[in-house]
Structures are given as C-alpha cells and as structure tokens.
Amino acid sequence: MLPPDYRLRTMLESDFDAIAEICARVYPAETPYTHAELREHMTRFPQGQVIAEYAPAGSAKATVVGVHFTLRLMFKDFHIDDSWDVLTANDTFSDDNPEGHTLYGADIMVSPDHQHHGLAHALTDAARAIVTDESLWRMVGGSRLPGYGAVAARMSAEEYVAAVRAGTMIDPVLTAHLKDGWAVVRPIQGYLQHDPDSAGWAAVIQWVNPECPPPPELELR
Ligand SMILES: CC(C)(COP(=O)(O)OP(=O)(O)OC[C@H]1O[C@@H](n2cnc3c(N)ncnc32)[C@H](O)[C@@H]1OP(=O)(O)O)[C@@H](O)C(=O)NCCC(=O)NCCS
Questions:
Q1: pTM over 0.90
Q2: How many domains is the chain built from?
Q3: 8 sits in which H/E element
Q4: How far apart are CA 103 and CA 126, in angstroms?
C-alpha cells in the first residue's frame, strides 16, 4: 500500500540522473549506476525496473525516490552462494532469461529522505505481482547485513541472522526485508565486493509463489 503523494511506474531514461544520485547517497563507497548500465537493465527487462516517485498533490513536479531492479533467472544455472556480479552478469543483466522461473531482485533502494514510508514494501509488492502475473516460482534476493560488521567479532553470521529473524536484533536492511514478506534461506559470504558494513556477508532471501511453487528438488536450501 503506497502512502499518499507517491506512485509507482516503470523506469524511463529521464530517471537515470536521479537514480545515480540516490545510489551515491545509499552506497557512498560504490560507483553509482551509469546511464549505460541502466539502459541495459531497461532493454533486457523493462517491466522489471520499477520506480517510486514522490508527486505531492498540487505540484507539477515528480521526484524519483526509490527503485527496484529485477531480472528473470534460470536459477538451476547458478549456485546459492553466487555473488551479485555473477547473478547480474556484471550488471549487464545479459543473463535475464525470459524462460527463467525465478525473479531475482538485483537491487532495491530508497532515498534516505523518503525511507520508513513503506516504499520498499510497495516496490516489493510490485515485484511479487510480476511473479504471480508471470506464474514464476519465486523471487530471490541477497539481503545486505549492514548491522553485522559491528558485531562480527562476537557472533557468527548465522547467529546474527537468527537473532534478526527472532526480532532480538534489528538490521537496517534485513529487518525491512523480513517485514516486507521475504524469508531467509541462509547467510552467504562474498555476495558484494565492497560491503564492509556487512563484513562481506549477506542473507539469501526468497518469497515463494504459493500458487506455483518450485518442484521440491529445485527448492533453495
Ligand atoms: C532497505 C531499504 C530499501 C528499506 O526502504 P524503506 O522504504 O525505508 O522500507 P519500508 O518503509 O518499506 O520498511 C519496511 C519495513 O521495515 C521496517 N523498517 C525499515 N527500516 C527499519 C529499521 N531500521 N529498523 C526497524 N524496522 C525497520 C519498516 O518499519 C517497515 O515495517 P512496517 O511495514 O511494519 O512499517 C532502505 O533502507 C535502503 O534503501 N537502504 C539502502 C540501500 C540498501 O541497502 N538496499 C538493500 C539492498 S539488499
């Protein structure tokens, strides 16, 4: 459910600069997405590149405030602990496969000025709608664990993820994903090249389509 003054739509070329600005703010250690990369996402799977924009009533101006980039993967061609670079074919999305049964959430980000308004939840619901409309088995993602680095010396990633799932610890990203309906498969190491806050760890997360689940032998474990 979107709060008033916000709406969702698919990405346009005119959004590219605003997306790069959000990226620079939420991932300050990363090089923001280039126009060429964003154009590639759009060419491969336009309906999977969803934008949240802020368009207050009475204002002629709408501002891009969040994005969710997805692609369709034949997941049996990959391993559960593959990195973001592998799963996105180095951000070309050239591995998008129209026959794939899995919608992979490559990135979701919301401008810090508009976080905690339920935008990630709405963007996740939009991805869930792609899964159900296209009768896919599931969506899968790699959740950063930016709260883990600070406690990595005293607990394992498995213990940390279990505490976040139990609600006894809060992670700025995984907690939001869990509230948005994702479930943890398991933690993996080396998902992102530069994520010191997560101490190199991430949690593989998924949402399985109850109408069209994968066959048991292809479930993620
Ligand atoms: C993760 C991120 C996308 C969440 O965006 P958001 O729009 O603020 O998320 P939502 O408002 O939809 O929050 C979802 C739920 O998590 C909760 N939540 C969000 N941040 C939280 C926090 N720090 N602590 C506790 N709960 C939190 C919200 O209250 C909401 O729960 P509710 O439905 O019960 O109200 C955003 O923080 C972000 O862009 N982070 C930086 C980029 C990033 O790391 N992306 C993830 C890549 S894996």
A1: yes
A2: 1
A3: strand 6-10
A4: 12
> What does each of the 221 residues of the chain score in pLDDT, given as a tens digit?
888 999 999 999 999 999 999 999 999 988 999 999 999 999 999 999 999 999 998 888 999 999 999 999 999 999 999 999 999 999 999 999 999 999 999 999 999 999 999 999 999 999 999 999 999 999 999 999 999 999 999 999 999 999 999 999 999 999 999 999 999 999 999 999 889 999 999 999 999 999 999 999 999 99
Q: Which atom of ligand 1 is nearest to the CA of 142?
A: 48
145 found inside a domain:
yes
Smallest CA-to-CA distance from 96 within 60, 157, 54, 45 is with: 45
| CATH number where 46 lies | 3.40.630.30
Contacts of 208 (CB under 8 A, 6+ apart): 137, 138, 183, 214
- Please, which contacts does 212-215 make with residues 24 or more away whose CB atoms are closer than 8 Å? 212/132, 212/135, 212/136, 212/137, 213/137, 213/138, 214/101, 214/137, 214/138
Protein residues whose CB sits closer than 6 Å to any atom of ligand 1: 26, 107-110, 115-121, 143-144, 170, 172-173, 175-176, 179-180
Nearest residue (CA) to ligand 1, atom 18: 176
Centre of ligand 1 to C-alpha 175, Å, is 7
1 belongs to a structural domain: no
What is the domain range of residue 47? Answer: 6-218
Which residue has the CA at smallest separation from atom 14 of ligand 1?
A: 176
